[in-house]
């Protein structure tokens, strides 16, 4: 059932249930408005995105009140997705900031009513001193629309405020349309994941979109050995003077990555009582079919490989196939995408129970079964 403003009581909700009901009703009203808008929005929105993508200058957004705050958010979205933009406050504009608008710029004015005096006051100047003026407004018939070259009308929407006064549904509709236009404009300028990474070097997004080289363990911190050595020699030598990893990278005589030998591989040999294999060539028992990523790949792509293959180590190689580092899952657990997709405690317990016991070789070459340390 689609709710309207008349379905909301203006009386103060008393019980927790009444308060939760009000929140859900507001969300339902706004969601229903967006659903209608998705069907009703016209081709003018496409024209707006095309003009933004083709702009040789800057996208200048203006608006006052709630529309101004939407404009500032839109500036941030446009700038971070490939289209340079800045915000022009109408009140500051009449005190000299009109000089910030250039002949190559495109101006977008936001006003639900289309009658904001501050915006109307500067609209003629903006239209005459830029490549054009786009109006994002509720109706195609209002003073701002009359001054604009292009009008994107979002339609009339009853506010979700129980009093029917506070801008709620109308601002949500305008913000959603602005986001949609920005996303199309981003696609039109060919904005790609590597561009996003370049503009988002910090935070969780920057972490995920960084090159895998930034987080991998360099060779100096990895276990690496020749595929011709024995299992015993490799495991003993690999445990001295390097940061502990769960896999040894094995290379051929040309230095190319030939395979991996993990602690689980060692444990399986011991479970099957293949003790003689410890003094045989490690290349005969290594994992020769494995996943790897090339230097320069995005960290988010490497994370997907770790998740999809359910592996803990991922070698990083250069263009020739020579190992240059190793990405260990413990180094990327801080990334939200990995943390959010970790299995539940019960699932982890079952998975641990199904794994072979951990095994290790001491410095003296003696095999010892050791309890597997739980990762933090």
- The count of helical stretches stands at 14
Query: N-to-C SSE series?
Result: HHEHEHEHEHEHHHEEHEEHEHEEHHEE
Report strand order across the widest sheet: 2-1-3-4-5
Q: Briefly, what CATH class of the largest domain?
A: Alpha Beta
- Helical residues, percent: 25-40%
For the record, the count of structural domains works out to 2
Second-tier CATH architecture of the largest domain: 3-Layer(aba) Sandwich
CATH superfamily of the largest domain: Glucose-6-phosphate isomerase like protein, domain 1
Q: In angstroms, what is the radius of gyration? A: 30 Å
- The chain-level mean pLDDT equals 84
Layout of secondary structure:
Elements: H1 16-40, H2 44-54, E1 59-62, H3 66-80, E2 85-88, H4 90-93, E3 106-111, H5 117-128, E4 133-137, H6 143-147, E5 150-153, H7 169-188, H8 193-199, H9 203-208, E6 217-218, E7 223-226, H10 231-238, E8 247-251, E9 257-262, H11 263-271, E10 293-294, H12 299-309, E11 313-317, E12 323-328, H13 336-340, H14 345-354, E13 359-361, E14 367-369
Helix pairs in contact: 1-7, 2-7, 3-7
